[in-house]
């Protein structure tokens, strides 16, 4: 139990560390519309139920829902996407405003906002009507304004990033929001972003972006392998490769044809027996450019064949050492290195809907995560929550196993009910079971939510004690100091300098411990109620937000020498200084460690 609690706190420190991370989301934004109906009789005109509409809700979808999830998880999200000048566009703007997403969408008169309308009876989706798609392309003026919005939003986020690298999330669902000029701009400006996440129906369109992470579904991953086997260069020229790879589009079917994907990236495969060689310029040859649009449900099924594993719907057969019990997760894990090579990504996370995900990077063993099977109406947008949490965790320098664990957890806890999935930061922390006080408040809080939290405490009649510091190497002097500070009021808030702030104050070789470790230890102390990280060199902004009843600093000097004393007194608080335990300073501990390198014995 103690180990599990420690692990939950470790994960919670990552959630705290991504607070207000600047994230630019670009791609296909849409409106999700949910219509809940009841049926008590059949129609006279046809054997169909008569539906009585009882409730209608709308939500951000696609790239817009990814931005909503980033904001709900605690990041600072800005969305750049084309949106129609129509009623659906107005509703989408309202959804973004309610979620505190920076709405930097570009109005496109004459181009409808993509909408997915679902009609439900109970939890069962009866039908879905889609409007707006790739046929409604952007004109030259629309592309130019979208590129301007991308540049401006990037600079706007940079201005408030406090030195943090920006993060980019690309959501390409084949609806026309990311034409070639926009893709080229993003590839050319890749170095303006630290972490780049890509979620695309056709990953081959993004070669050259070199994303940090890609999150294809199983169908999207097999599509990429199919295009790789056919040869990207030939496909882009519209020519048929000279090898044995052939696509057979029979006139009597409307589905993709069969293609054998060899084990080697870009290698030739085996022609399907009886399939003719398509002539250049024919629909079959043009199909080598790869399928577009949203994958159909059949593309997610796998059947075991004599030669390997056949992906039903795509017609892709992957040569693999197949045997009884082989499933999609096993297949995805076996192809992770190829997927990384074809996408240029550091991390590939193949999502398997109700079966979880398989995640792998350059180092370490692939990680398999699991999810709880739920009705399809509960899982809409769960992939957006997964993408948002994975991106934020990697942007906060979390390890891949940690990022994968948080991403799967975020996706899993959003599927409790019908509707478009959004994972909120407080729900993620609650699922981790981490530090909450008697009022149900989390121990690790963000700077922007601190004032509201303190207001709740004050309405409950509690007095607030505030202190700040680097707390680089936590030692008994800190513990005694914080315990004494807590005794001066009803709750203690500890503000911790970020890593960048510590470097500016203490020098380039500090901090010894990253902020995630420092706040985890502080939050574990019984005397500490809330921990918050600040980027500035001075806690003045937080002091103004908290207006503490007592401000505490460590040291043997009088309170008048505390730099923050005038501000605290102007706000109505008092200043106290508390002495440290002798010979228990961080610098003294670091000096002793450096004086005795590894391998040398300690003095008697």
TrEMBL record:
<dbReference type="InterPro" id="IPR029056">
    <property type="entry name" value="Ribokinase-like"/>
</dbReference>
<keyword id="KW-0119">Carbohydrate metabolism</keyword>
<dbReference type="GO" id="GO:0016301">
    <property type="term" value="F:kinase activity"/>
</dbReference>
<dbReference type="GO" id="GO:0016773">
    <property type="term" value="F:phosphotransferase activity, alcohol group as acceptor"/>
</dbReference>
<keyword id="KW-0067">ATP-binding</keyword>
<dbReference type="InterPro" id="IPR014729">
    <property type="entry name" value="Rossmann-like_a/b/a_fold"/>
</dbReference>
<feature type="region of interest" description="Disordered">
    <location>
        <begin position="249"/>
        <end position="299"/>
    </location>
</feature>
<dbReference type="Pfam" id="PF00294">
    <property type="entry name" value="PfkB"/>
</dbReference>
<comment type="pathway">
    <text>Bacterial outer membrane biogenesis; LPS core biosynthesis.</text>
</comment>
<dbReference type="GO" id="GO:0016779">
    <property type="term" value="F:nucleotidyltransferase activity"/>
</dbReference>
<dbReference type="InterPro" id="IPR011914">
    <property type="entry name" value="RfaE_dom_II"/>
</dbReference>
<protein>
    <recommendedName>
        <fullName>D-glycero-beta-D-manno-heptose 1-phosphate adenylyltransferase</fullName>
        <ecNumber>2.7.7.70</ecNumber>
    </recommendedName>
</protein>
<dbReference type="GO" id="GO:0005524">
    <property type="term" value="F:ATP binding"/>
</dbReference>
<dbReference type="InterPro" id="IPR050385">
    <property type="entry name" value="Archaeal_FAD_synthase"/>
</dbReference>
<keyword id="KW-0808">Transferase</keyword>
<feature type="domain" description="Cytidyltransferase-like">
    <location>
        <begin position="466"/>
        <end position="561"/>
    </location>
</feature>
<dbReference type="InterPro" id="IPR002173">
    <property type="entry name" value="Carboh/pur_kinase_PfkB_CS"/>
</dbReference>
<keyword id="KW-0548">Nucleotidyltransferase</keyword>
<keyword id="KW-0511">Multifunctional enzyme</keyword>
<dbReference type="Pfam" id="PF01467">
    <property type="entry name" value="CTP_transf_like"/>
</dbReference>
<dbReference type="InterPro" id="IPR004821">
    <property type="entry name" value="Cyt_trans-like"/>
</dbReference>
<dbReference type="GO" id="GO:0009244">
    <property type="term" value="P:lipopolysaccharide core region biosynthetic process"/>
</dbReference>
<keyword id="KW-0547">Nucleotide-binding</keyword>
<keyword id="KW-0418">Kinase</keyword>
<feature type="domain" description="Carbohydrate kinase PfkB">
    <location>
        <begin position="23"/>
        <end position="123"/>
    </location>
</feature>
<dbReference type="InterPro" id="IPR011611">
    <property type="entry name" value="PfkB_dom"/>
</dbReference>
<feature type="domain" description="Carbohydrate kinase PfkB">
    <location>
        <begin position="342"/>
        <end position="423"/>
    </location>
</feature>
């Amino acid at each position: 139990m103690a180990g599990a609690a420690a692990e939950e706190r470790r994960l919670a420190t990552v959630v705290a560390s991504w607070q207000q991370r600047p994230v630019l989301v670009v791609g296909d934004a849409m409106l999700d519309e949910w219509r809940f109906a009841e049926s008590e009789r059949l129609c006279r005109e046809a054997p169909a139920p008569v539906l009585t509409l009882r409730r209608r809700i709308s939500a951000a979808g696609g790239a817009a829902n990814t931005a909503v999830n980033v904001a709900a998880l605690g990041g600072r999200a800005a969305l750049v996407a084309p949106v129609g000048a129509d009623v659906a566009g107005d509703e989408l703007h309202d959804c973004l405003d309610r979620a505190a997403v920076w709405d930097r969408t570009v109005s496109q008169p004459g181009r409808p906002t993509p909408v997915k309308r679902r009609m439900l009876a109970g939890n069962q989706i009866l039908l879905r009507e889609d409007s707006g798609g790739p046929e409604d392309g952007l004109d030259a003026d629309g592309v130019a304004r979208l590129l301007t919005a991308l540049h401006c939003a990037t600079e706007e986020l940079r201005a408030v990033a406090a030195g943090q690298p920006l993060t980019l999330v690309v959501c390409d669902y084949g609806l026309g929001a990311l034409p070639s000029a926009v893709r080229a701009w993003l590839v050319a400006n890749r170095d303006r972003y630290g972490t780049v996440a890509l979620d695309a129906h056709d990953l081959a369109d993004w070669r050259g972006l070199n994303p940090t992470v890609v999150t294809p579904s199983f169908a999207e991953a097999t599509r990429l392998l199919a295009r790789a086997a056919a040869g990207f260069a030939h496909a882009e020229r519209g020519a048929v490769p000279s090898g044995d790879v052939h696509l057979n589009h029979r006139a009597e079917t409307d589905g993709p044809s069969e293609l054998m994907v060899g084990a080697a990236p870009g290698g030739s495969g085996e022609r399907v027996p009886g399939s003719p060689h398509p002539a250049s310029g024919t629909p079959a040859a043009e199909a080598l450019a790869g399928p577009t649009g949203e994958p159909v449900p059949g593309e997610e099924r796998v059947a075991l064949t004599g030669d390997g594993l056949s992906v039903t719907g795509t017609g892709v057969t992957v040569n693999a050492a197949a045997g009884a019990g082989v499933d999609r997760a096993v297949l995805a894990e076996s192809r992770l290195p190829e997927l990384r090579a074809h996408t240029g990504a550091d991390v590939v996370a193949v999502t398997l809907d109700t079966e979880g995900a398989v995640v792998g990077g350059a180092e370490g063993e692939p990680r398999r995560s699991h999810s709880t099977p739920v009705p399809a109406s509960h899982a809409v947008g769960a992939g957006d929550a997964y993408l948002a949490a994975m991106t934020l965790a990697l942007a906060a320098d979390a390890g891949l196993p940690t990022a994968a664990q948080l991403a799967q957890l975020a996706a899993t806890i959003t599927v409790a009910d019908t509707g478009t999935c959004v994972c909120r930061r407080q729900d993620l922390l609650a699922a981790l079971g981490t530090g909450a006080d008697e009022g149900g408040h989390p121990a690790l809080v963000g700077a922007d939510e601190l004032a509201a939290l303190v207001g709740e405490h004050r309405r409950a009649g509690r007095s607030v004690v505030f202190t700040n510091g680097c707390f680089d190497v936590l030692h008994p002097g800190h513990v005694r100091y914080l315990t004494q500070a807590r005794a001066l009021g009803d709750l203690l808030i500890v503000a911790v300098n970020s890593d960048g702030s510590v470097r500016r104050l203490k020098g380039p070789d500090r901090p010894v411990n990253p902020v995630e470790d420092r706040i985890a230890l502080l939050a574990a102390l019984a005397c500490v109620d809330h921990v918050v990280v600040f980027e500035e060199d001075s806690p003045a902004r937080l002091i103004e937000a908290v207006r503490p009843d007592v401000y505490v600093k460590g040291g043997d000097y009088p309170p008048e020498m505390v730099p923050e004393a005038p501000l605290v007194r102007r706000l109505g608080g008092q200043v106290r200084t508390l002495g440290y335990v002798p010979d228990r300073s961080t610098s003294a501990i670091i000096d002793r460690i450096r004086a005795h390198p590894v391998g040398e014995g300690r003095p008697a």
